[in-house]
Design brief:
Layout lengths: L2 E14 L2 E14 L3 E5 L6 H8 L8 E10 L2 E2 L5 H10 L1 E4 L3 H4 L6 H13 L3 H14 L16 H13 L5 E5 L7 H17 L3 E6 L2 H7 L2 E6 L2 E7 H6 L4 H8 L39 H5 L10 E2 L7 H4 L1
Bound molecules: iron/sulfur cluster.
């Protein structure tokens, strides 16, 4: 099997008494073993919902996987039992969450929390678990003598290293990192990204990195998928997408990145706001904001076009239209 993960036509909704939020609307993705994919989009585009679906943590209710398949090493996770899901999260897929404050227990020593993860999943002795934790903490740059410290004694960057340790303790084949450096200042952010990159190589893990930051993805990933209103609108290698973005939304994202030499007051921003997942427009979901839209865009949803570098736009292959 070449692909460690394959998502086919995934639809995830959040249904309450008076609304139906269509958070993910037909996502297709494949990740090869050892590959890293950046998933880029604005807040509310469906990044985290896609990630939570993969790791089988969609809160149900109100979340429902309405349709689709999530194949991990060829097995569809959607039909997993709770026991199988625990195993999956124990040694198949790990997730680093954005908010380290909620991931760590504030009244428990950090080392003990990490050792507990090892003991739960591998049934080794307490002494052996402690040895493994200290080894890994040192690998991620946390000194052994911090084993007995509490979470509040760690800085933001160090706490993120602890969370990375927690994710790696289970020896995952696939690591999902959800905005792992957003809360950190720029220097620390660069160090943590470098660490993630090194560890991924060392342990030969596949990775999905969720971010709203194109720069972070360029630094860390081989491929990139751009998500808008719950759909992947463009996917390809970082090199192809960054040098030749085909979808108008992707082009808008690149044009929105501030450049040092430019007058910031004249910064291009994509006009309008993202379509509400509670009332998506007909046709192309991006059409209310798209400066290239034609009549067809208001009624017919475009298919994915291209082979290795794909874009979901009626005109994505016709550069003269998007010039
Ligand atoms: Fe714009 Fe039409 Fe392409 Fe949608 S399909 S991105 S509205 S040009």
């Amino acid at each position: 099997l070449d692909n460690i993960l394959e998502i086919k036509n995934l639809h995830v909704h959040y249904v309450t008494e008076d609304s139906e939020i269509k958070a993910v609307n037909g996502v297709n993705l494949a990740i090869k073993k050892g590959d890293s994919l950046g998933l880029v989009g604005e807040t509310g585009a469906g990044k985290t919902t896609t990630a939570l679906s993969i790791i089988q943590l969609i809160p149900d209710p109100p979340g429902i996987i309405v349709e689709g398949e999530i194949l991990f090493n060829g097995k569809n996770l959607i039909h997993n039992t709770e026991k199988e899901n625990k195993q999956l999260r124990g040694n198949g897929i790990s997730m680093i969450f954005q908010d380290s404050m909620t991931a760590l227990n504030p009244i428990m020593r950090v080392g003990d929390q990490l050792a507990e993860v090892v003991i739960t999943h591998t049934k080794v002795s307490k002494a052996e678990a402690k040895r493994q934790v200290i080894d890994l903490l040192e690998t991620v740059g946390v000194k052994a003598d911090r084993y007995n410290d509490y979470p509040h004694q760690f800085s933001g960057g160090m706490k993120q290293r602890v969370l990375i340790t927690m994710a790696l303790l289970c020896n995952p084949e696939l690591l999902i990192a959800d905005e792992p450096t957003t809360a950190l200042d720029v220097t620390i952010q660069a160090q943590v990204l470098e660490l993630i990159k090194q560890l991924r190589k060392k342990y030969n893990m596949s990775m999905i990195l969720i971010s709203h930051d194109l720069g972070v993805v360029a630094e860390t990933c081989d491929r990139v998928a751009i998500i808008y209103a719950g759909e992947i609108v463009e996917i390809g290698t970082v090199e192809e997408v960054y040098t030749n973005p085909k979808h108008p939304y992707t082009r808008g994202l690149f044009e929105s990145i501030p450049k040092l030499e430019e007058d910031q007051s004249r910064l291009f921003q994509i006009e309008g706001t993202m379509a509400s997942p509670a009332s998506l427009p007909k046709g192309c979901y991006f059409h209310p904001r798209c400066k290239y839209k034609a009549d067809i865009c208001e009624t017919i949803s475009p298919g994915m076009q291209g082979e290795e570098h794909l874009s979901k736009c009626h005109f994505s292959l016709r550069d003269e239209v998007l010039a």
